[in-house]
Records
---
Amino acid sequence: MTCSRTIVIVIAFLGSSALQAHEVTAPISIESFPLDEVSPHIRVVHGPLAQPSPENRGFMNNPAAILTANGIIVVDPGSSRNTGRQLVEKVRRIWNKPVVAIFNTHVHGDHWLGNDGVRELYPNVPIYAHERMIERANAGEGEFWINVFKTMTKGTAGETKAVAPTIGLKGGEEIRIDDVTLKIHYAGHAHSDNDLMIEVLNDRSLFTGDIVLNHHVPNSDVPQDASFKGSITAIEAMLKGPYSLYVPGHGRTGGREVPEAMLRFHRKLYDLVMKFYRDGQQDYEMKDRIVNEMSEYRDWHNFSEMGRVIGYVYREIEKDDF
Ligand SMILES: [Zn+2]
Ligand SMILES: [Zn+2]
């Protein structure tokens, strides 16, 4: 009797927590997502495709770790101190080694504000990024992003301070850490003016930053920072590399099909805007037709932002025309 009552209570408890885990409005964090093994050395937490909100506490990117013989290299530890700390705790559950380096792919806050949480645990760990990112971070861009996340999450992202990278890179460097060799690539102004791509030579893999997203309209969050033509050039360049695995800034990791899909999207969008521009149309006149022509991508995240993205492609083409 006592025994069966205990079982009923346990089942009721499990039932209610399972319901909570699937409750759409329940607050989520990096803790709710698995640490995916995508290659021998690389682990990725594939974050949700979403805008920062009180429910997701601003967690929306793909924080990752590269495991070396004696340590952990963190890539893009998310948008808050909490996310950065939780990423390290999560990785250390499977790889109980110290964090030996952090890499940031670019200056947008969803990728690097988590430096604060990693540095809380490892105060002296070096942080690598493009030198232009360091310039922008030191000019106060961190505070701008902290405010964006604070406002959009209504404070659920928690307290964070901007911890800027410490070691500037230009692209072309080869960095060996223990048994892992990283090659740094820079393909010019693309998603932003400071995108680094990180190749893990051992695994023939590439962290693309936000130059490549999976199932996500490109440059839709911060189109004012992007060169759309430069994004096409950068993706073409990475497709010539020896990689069999691409870790995008948002969305699932995959093979060549991930950057190839992004390249098709970019080329189609750019060509359409160019065609209507040459016909003498203004951006507001071409928007509806282009959105319609691009409807094969309507299930991509942020498709509702296409109008704004078209406006920015238009302005770039107009500027290049002068
Ligand atoms: Zn970005
Ligand atoms: Zn991003």
---
Amino acid sequence: MSPSLSPPDQAAVVIVGGGMAGLSCAASLARHGISDVVLLEARTLANARASSFGETRMFREMYSDPVLCRLAQEANRLWREEENHAGEQLRDTHGLLFYGESWDEETIEGSIPGARRVMDEQNIPYEALSSEQIAARFPLKPKPEFTGLFEPTAGAVRSDRVIAHWTRTARNAGQMLIEHCAVAGIDSDGGGVTLENGHHISAGQVVVTSGIWSQLLLAPLGLAPKLEVWPMLWAHYTVDPSLQERYPQWFCFQQERGDDGGLYYGFPVLSHSEDGRPRIKAGIDWAPKQLRVADPNAMDTEPPVRLVELLDHFLFNSVEGVQERVETVMSPYSMTSDVNFVLDRLNSKLSLFAGGSGQAFKFAPLIGDSLARLARNESTAVDLSCWSHQREAVRF
Ligand SMILES: Cc1cc2nc3c(=O)[nH]c(=O)nc-3n(C[C@H](O)[C@H](O)[C@H](O)COP(=O)(O)OP(=O)(O)OC[C@H]3O[C@@H](n4cnc5c(N)ncnc54)[C@H](O)[C@@H]3O)c2cc1C
């Protein structure tokens, strides 16, 4: 537990979990002048076992689902407000390349034809690129049949900077953010929580934002949504300094072949290795079925050798100038069967965000604003019925 902070006996709002969702909710409440807020985090804020860990997340409006595309536009409006509050840039706008095969199926990140259709409908600017144009413009080696879409207004959220900004915002408002303080149970009416040491905190409202661990707290209440835990591999690779300005942010779509799920992504050079070499972040965007689990404590945290081989193979063969893998990490996706989130009121005193999969960070200001409205007994500002707790895809 944070040495100087003892949990109080009561609070207007108790938030369980200090990742993207919990901290964005706390910061939004802070901006509405609500300081009687306690955020309880079992480990440390945005810790290395949580889904929000790391320095970057992609943001884009290039979605195959028109609803997510519109919500991403709303989130981008809120990001601009967030940057005004922060007085610093929280996102880098350097564009995003979707490239690869086009086939008649949506993946967990959408598809090239689907995204093109939606961007046409919504008048979102993009460039269509051939395989030759991609190879000429970027240090990538696309197959001849590949095509691409480049969304110039997309880029990277600096997630570590965002977490630091929300932490400051909440603490400056007088809220209590207590680390190393695990919640063991939630009152059945949502009117309080019990800590692992037995201490009880009565709450006007409880907001559950405990990521893949939400199930453990909500199952005893019969309120757990149906979620799977996917262990996801990502890594940093050092690159040739002479190419460092040319790496794009990219997502490569390929059909599954054998044990190769075919979906890979990468970022431009946004940081350096400990010894000062430019590095890119890259990852695999699928989890083999045998690694997916229902129990968060059963998740494999060691990088599986075969997945590391596949990621290395893609990077060393499909991206120019890649030198050495210098950091390898497994982070969890909290997945629903329709790859959409759960953001909803569960009863009059209890709200939830979960199922953030590989795409929730870009929606963070919208998630925070919506959870804060629910905690203030208001409705969300935009229609979020696609994230309902009652929908078929997440009901047991
Ligand atoms: C590898 C990877 C890449 C991604 N890429 C992108 C991307 O490019 N773009 C994008 O938009 N999104 C992306 N995402 C998705 C996004 O990062 C996640 O959806 C988001 O971070 C989830 O945040 P969260 O707050 O719900 O969960 P978490 O960050 O997991 O936070 C939950 C917190 O709750 C705490 N907790 C758990 N149980 C308890 C308890 N009993 N008591 C107290 N605390 C508890 C945990 O310790 C944890 O800190 C990616 C995710 C991953 C893993």
---
Amino acid sequence: MPELAEVEYFRQQWDPGIGGKIKLVECNPKARIYRENSAKEITEALTGATLRASFAQAKQMLFQFSGGRWLGLHLGMTGKLLCVAKQPERGKWDHFVLRQASRTLVFRDPRQFGLLRLHIGQEPPAWWTELPPAILSDAFTPDVMNAFLQRRAKSPLKAVLLMQERFPGIGNWMADEILWRAQLHPEIKSGKLTSEQKETLYRKVREVSADALCAIAGVGGELPADLNVNIPESWLFWHRWRDGGHCPKDDEALQRKAIGGRTSCWCPRCQRP
Ligand SMILES: [Zn+2]
């Protein structure tokens, strides 16, 4: 599932289309991505409009068009955005396609857990303005984070880091990376952290967010074969995916277990219970 940095990467893919008019909207009206607004509604609203700007926050994207048209886009599990110079025909998984004079903007989503949301108005939609403060914003302070940990005092820390209402955009691999860098066991109760551990956690939450954005969203340009190509070997990232991985710091065999419904991976030496 795309996390913070992957979402930011895909947002940038439609940038070449900013300032361009949408001449034609092509949809697969039966796709599940139209479960909130119909393909017909979206087509009528966007045909002839100009793409003005794009925004990404957490796992959400928002595209602003002329005439007070806004399109929210969630990538779901397998969604991707692409910009192609010319595409003669809509591909099998291309459920939403915007044609401009010299390029085509594509939303490709094989599994269709993605979602399109139309909003008409001068201001962005409420679901967007009500998103929790981004982790790298000034509003995400140690106090805000610590108060949340206290409210979830009995929950394992790994499960709390996945709660989008306070850690927007953090997904499974980022949460494991944060805990590994902070040397915290994923099952430690959120209310049991010392003040020193809380300070470290806060720094690592921001650090991993910034590093992931830089390594993944910073690649720019056309879709590389592997979005993670710039992630260094020294991160837990490369070692966590399947059984048999070793900690890149001390070569200890990594452990894996489902915590809060998601597979967690940690180093038993770096992250003692
Ligand atoms: Zn280790």
